[in-house]
């Protein structure tokens, strides 16, 4: 049995559980990031080499360790917290806000901490415009409200001193058949992939789409207790593989030293 | 003398294989639905020993065994504990049986129920292999909230229109496949098993209390790390003993060659 084959399963265990530790650390780091979704690493065992036995015509199938098959985000609802900003909003239920990425493509996010830029456009904190474009006239910025169906309104003062509600725009949300298939691109943004399926765009609070909650932000859905338990498990698993590697190393060392006296 | 060297080497080789098996088990201590392997060893065929040049010609003096050899890898199919994940498409079987998945190489069986929808609304594994129903067909999930009963009945609750409220409809029953005997299953990879006999006798069976399906749970690996660590220590020491034997016999051979020649 070649040495590379001997150490491979132990090393694969260390590499995989290290990745698990990285993902858990990232989840824990984002425990206060609004719109953040926790991820987990899914593991699978690796191809079993069929070592043909000399003494029988049976195969001896010894596994070659473990490999991470994917990092899977979980789109469970995070809790909503009230804020003071009129342009903060959260989705309660299914769906993502749509924003225009710098490369012109559409990104999707659950982080609705929006602001109004110099041109009156509703954008993310990074300045990415919300899709479809919502342009808020300067005199309405201070009085913006959003209802559960995503209609953005403002109060315009009339010449006679009374104020009248004016519709500024309509927010849209997008849903996916398999949101877990979305690709995370940072800044709480996701891109659609073949795995996620195409986006279905609709109005908030219509069948199949969540509602918009104004002056609120969705908290991270990271569960601190779960992550701590996962951290311990991953750390121990790493330790087991490390121990296996040390043992194999010592054994190979013994073989090496048989004539070394 | 040389025969003893071969026996010691055989001991070292088998113990390396045993440690590799244990190392693979330990690497998969967090792999959902993983089943532990044990390496079975057997002694080399016995050999009748005879003494030459005795008074009555050749005289048989008994038999000796010339070391140890790998026999087979056996998989332990015991139930592992279930871990709560709260993800609606994580399923675990408590009891007998396997989920069936359609792969490019044919039907495979798995205890890893970390499923998801693919872009076509079908229930798939992490690899994208289709999960099979009790009728042996792929399962299509319409958009909506999925619920799975302990009997494996999948239902989807969805708002069809804005008027009538959520409607709950049965979609399919997940297939729980049972092998006639555990030895029929052979590991491939990706947490999957294949039918080693090639007879396709592994079919979905009605659960009838033999097993229950749990939604929002994953089955852990059934590797017991404490036992694996102690098995590894035993194997390492056994390897060390064989290495010492080899060393000793090397020394004795050296003495025989150099010292005897000096007489």
Write structural notes for this entry.
- The complex is a heterodimer of chains A (261) and B (263).
- Chain A starts with a helix and ends in a 5-residue tail after the last helix.
- Chain A has helices spanning 3-29, 224-256; strands at 39-45, 48-52, 59-63, 66-73, 80-82, 89-92, 96-100, 106-109, 115-116, 122-123, 130-131, 145-146, 151-157, 163-170, 173-175, 183-186, 189-191, 200-202, 211-214, 216-218.
- In chain A, 23% of the residues lie in helices and 32% in strands.
- Chain A is of the alpha+beta class and 261 residues long.
- Chain A is elongated, with a radius of gyration of 27 Å.
- The model of chain A has no long low-confidence stretch (mean pLDDT 89).
- Chain B is 24% helix and 37% strand.
- With 263 residues, chain B is an alpha+beta fold.
- In chain B, 40% of the residues are buried.
- Chain B has two helices and 20 strands.
- Chain B has helices at 2-27, 225-262; strands spanning 37-43, 46-54, 57-65, 68-75, 82-84, 91-95, 98-103, 106-110, 116-117, 123-124, 130-131, 145-148, 153-159, 166-173, 176-178, 185-187, 192-195, 203-204, 211-215, 217-219.
- The chains are: A alpha+beta (261), B alpha+beta (263).
- At the A-B interface, α1, β1, β3, β4 and α2 of A face α1, β4, β9 and α2 of B.
């Amino acid at each position: 049995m070649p040495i590379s084959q001997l150490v491979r399963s132990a090393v694969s265990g260390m590499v995989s559980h290290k990745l698990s530790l990285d993902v858990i650390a990232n989840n824990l780091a984002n425990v206060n990031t609004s719109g953040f979704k926790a991820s987990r690493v899914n593991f699978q065992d690796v191809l079993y080499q069929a070592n043909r036995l000399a003494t029988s015509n049976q195969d001896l199938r010894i596994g070659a360790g473990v490999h991470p098959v994917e990092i899977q985000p979980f789109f469970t609802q995070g809790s909503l917290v009230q804020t003071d900003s009129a342009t903060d909003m959260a989705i309660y239920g299914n769906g993502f806000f749509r924003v225009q990425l710098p490369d012109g493509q559409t990104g999707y996010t659950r982080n609705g901490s929006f602001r109004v830029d110099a041109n009156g456009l509703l954008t993310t904190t990074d300045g990415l415009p919300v899709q479809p474009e919502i342009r808020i006239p300067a005199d309405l910025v201070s009085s913006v409200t959003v209802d559960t169906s995503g209609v953005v309104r403002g109060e315009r003062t009339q010449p006679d001193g009374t104020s009248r509600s004016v519709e500024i725009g309509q927010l849209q949300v997008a849903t996916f058949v398999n949101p877990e298939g979305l690709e995370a691109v940072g800044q709480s943004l996701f891109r659609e992939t073949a795995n996620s399926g195409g986006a279905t765009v609709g109005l908030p609070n219509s069948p199949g789409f969540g509602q918009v909650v104004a002056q609120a932000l969705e908290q991270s859905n990271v569960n601190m207790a779960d992550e701590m338990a996962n951290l311990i498990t991953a750390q121990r698993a790493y330790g087991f593989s490390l121990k296996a590697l040390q043992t194999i190393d010592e054994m190979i060392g013994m073989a090496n030293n048989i004539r070394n006296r | 003398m040389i025969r003893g060297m071969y026996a010691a080497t055989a001991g070292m080789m088998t113990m390396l294989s045993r440690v590799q098996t244990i190392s693979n088990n330990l690497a998969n201590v967090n792999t959902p639905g993983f089943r532990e392997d044990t390496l079975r060893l057997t002694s080399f065929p016995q050999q009748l020993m005879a003494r030459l040049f005795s008074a009555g010609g050749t005289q048989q003096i008994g038999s000796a065994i010339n070391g140890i050899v790998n026999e087979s890898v056996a998989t332990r199919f015991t139930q592992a504990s279930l871990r709560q994940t709260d993800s609606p498409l994580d399923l675990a079987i408590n009891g007998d049986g396997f989920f069936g998945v359609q792969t490019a190489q044919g039907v495979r069986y798995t205890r890893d129920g970390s499923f998801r929808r693919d872009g076509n609304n079908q229930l798939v594994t992490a690899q994208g292999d289709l999960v099979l129903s009790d009728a042996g067909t792929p399962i299509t999930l319409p958009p909506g909230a999925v619920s799975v009963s302990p009997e494996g009945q999948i239902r989807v609750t969805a708002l069809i229109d804005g008027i009538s409220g959520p409607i709950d409809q049965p979609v399919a029953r997940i297939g729980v496949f049972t092998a006639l005997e555990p030895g029929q299953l052979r590991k491939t990879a990706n947490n999957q098993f294949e039918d080693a006999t090639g007879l396709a006798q592994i079919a979905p069976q009605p659960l009838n209390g033999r097993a229950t399906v749990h939604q929002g749970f994953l089955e852990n690996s059934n590797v017991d790390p404490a036992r694996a660590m102690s098995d590894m220590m035993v194997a390492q020491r056994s390897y060390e003993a064989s290495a010492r034997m080899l060393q000793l016999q090397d020394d004795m051979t050296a003495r025989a060659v150099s010292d005897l020649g000096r007489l």
